[in-house]
User: Which sequence fits this backbone?
């Protein structure tokens, strides 16, 4: 049985925010300190990603383990169990669908879970995120010139960068 009345529980649940959450602020501060610039909750993109880095064509979703059903990190409440199971399943299905739509538009999607931002794992998670963003940028901007051309040997007359005077 719930310790709070239905009205108190409703008030508590209504106070939970979807923007500017503590995990999201940790990621935002970590990226900003490392020189990354981003937009917040872009209304033009499916799912309104928490962070949008246009330079990297990357959307970052900072998900709460409970609300998005992170395996092994959340417990379904004992009261009104059917409602919570259905709600979390809908959230997971919506997340997958939105990320597919973003991928079709050419965006990379990164999901960071709330549990990965606990103090013991936070720095490792942020370093991994920075590494991933840099790898995405390098992969997207790689110039493919093919193999170096083979120089034909004509005795000792090779093309040289600097010849003796």
Assistant:
């Amino acid at each position: 049985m719930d310790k709070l009345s239905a009205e108190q529980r409703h008030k508590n649940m209504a106070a939970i925010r979807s923007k500017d959450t503590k995990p999201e602020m940790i990621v935002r501060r970590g990226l900003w300190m490392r020189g990354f610039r981003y937009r917040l909750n872009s209304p033009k993109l499916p799912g309104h990603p928490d962070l949008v880095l246009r330079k990297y064509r990357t959307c970052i979703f900072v998900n709460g383990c409970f609300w998005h059903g992170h395996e092994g990190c959340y417990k379904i409440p004992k009261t009104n169990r059917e409602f919570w199971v259905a709600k979390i399943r809908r959230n997971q299905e919506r997340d997958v669908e939105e990320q597919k739509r973003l991928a079709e538009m050419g965006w990379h999607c990164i999901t960071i879970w709330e549990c990965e931002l606990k103090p013991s794992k936070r720095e490792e998670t942020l370093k991994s995120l920075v590494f991933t963003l840099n790898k995405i940028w390098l992969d997207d901007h790689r110039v493919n010139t093919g193999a170096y051309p083979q120089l034909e040997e004509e005795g000792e007359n090779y093309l040289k960068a600097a010849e003796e005077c």
